[in-house]
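Lab meeting, action items carried over

1. Structure of the two-component assembly. Owner: GW. Status: complete.
Input record:
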Amino acid sequence: MRLLLLVLLGAAACRSRPLYQAPTGGTPEQTYRMRLADGERIAEEDRALWQVEVASAALWVGDDAGAFRALDDASRVMGTLESSAAENRRAILGQEATKTWKGDPHERCMAALYKGLLYWRAGDLDNASACFKAGLLADAWSADGEAQEDFAALSFLLGWVSALRGKDEQARFSFLEAARNCPRNPYLEDPRPMEDNVLVVADIGRGPKKYAEGVGDNLVRFARCPHPEHGIEVIVDGRPMGRSAPAADLFHQAITRGEKVLDGIRKGKAVFKGGTYVGGVILINEGLRRDKGEMVAVGAGLLLLSALTQAQADTRHWSSLPAEIHVLPLRIPPGRRRIEVRALDADGRPFPGWSRTFDVNVPDGPGTLYWFKTGPGRTISGLAGPTE
Amino acid sequence: MGHRYGACYARPEGDPNDMRMFCITLFAALICACGSSKTKRVDPADDDEIMGTGLESADIENLEKFSKSLLAHPALARPGGGEAPTVAIHPIENNTRFDFDAELLVRRIRQKLVENAYGRVRFVTRANHDEAMIDRERAEKRMGERTATKTVTKTGADYYLTGTASAISKVGKGRESDAIWIDFRLVDAENGEILWEDVYKTKKVGKAGVIYR
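Predicted assembly:
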């Protein structure tokens, strides 16, 4: 009786829980509302994931303050990778997705990048710089990955902000790092933050999807999501000013995260799961054939163990990330300007109807930051107005 | 075979005591689970269980120790019992990888300085720490000195207190370490001379949990 109860308790503890998936509505505003509404029923383990998804939706509708609040809350969870013994036990013995979501290195990089951009837009260059540094170090957590601290967009932004803060040596070093890690982007070669008064940062396309495959879904995989747009063109008062160029490929960042401890544990669990299943089936079969009840019972026990062993990988991921981060330094005369942003195809041609116009007041002096995002449904979001 | 009290396996099958034992075990597990989520009051100067390697409330509380050392400096003693000198507190420059509320730091330092100064020194806060602001401060002081003869309130500061947070941060192989220094300087607004300097330093090492490595 007690054994049965313990087994039932174990089974209940090991029961798979549904993973959080951020809803997406027809418009950015609907998406933002739907995601905010999720807050009342979100599981504690998914809270940081929910917050970054809310932050993305807030950025799409131009809510700087809402995006900052969500990212600030999320970064408190994502900022420390410590875990309790109970959490370790649950994630190792049971389902991996019971652990608190803190994101993969590329997701922590992006949380830091967005937070840095928001600090920058609020005029706090010190904290913007701190966030870009934190993002670069978040990339280095992938200790066994093929590439660490190679997030060129973060190096470039750190360089730009450092130049604005008068930290010329840090700026020079960061720009060199950015150019080394992304040699094909012409804007990273010789940036002039004190002359190019506007920096455009753009999110292009849809970010990588994380999924599981293999025995018991134990292997983590990332897939590129197809997207038609490959960049943006900025037109100021009817005059083409330039086209964006990629400074970070999120898929590349995701697949170079390196091997994790849990990857090995899941592989072991998958082998155990397979072995106990095969052993259980053989024992039951033989037990029935020879009419030996003990053998059938042991076989059933092995089958139960196989069923309780959860080898599936944690596939929770920040679904609102872009495929690429683009940059475009511009020299725009100060004053009231009409900025048109057009999405471009792979050959650099603008998509008919996929554009948006922003009326802005370009301030005198360096350091103006505009952020744009191409989205599904041929939308373009942007933070180009003044901050609150 | 004798009946062994307390040994559960000796009870006959279907004994209601099995269910009682299960309920007791479940209740104990619930008590343990509830106990771990209890909120408790702690001193802001103490470390807590959720520590990162950045600046914590304990670090900010420890910054208060500078107030006495600073106020003991001869420059802040009233020369000849004259008017109380004015110190402009500028924001702490952040060169670390941690974003923090620089205003909170300034506020905590100012509160402690005001508390310990007993009116011997006047304090004002400034929003920027750039060179232009310091130049303005100097000009304001000169302007103040001129206007003082016309019995107009002096607005420029005699000294300014600045701070810079710097760090050496390392991450790799599932570990992180951050050595943070916060330097404070009292500078003469007139000639830029550094009159007093002190540093708060801390180093923290963290390790990622096995499930995040």
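2. GW to write a short summary for the group page. Key points so far: Residues 25-81+88-264+312-383 of chain A form a domain with the Serine Threonine Protein Phosphatase 5, Tetratricopeptide repeat fold (CATH 1.25.40.10). The longest helix of chain A spans residues 261-290.
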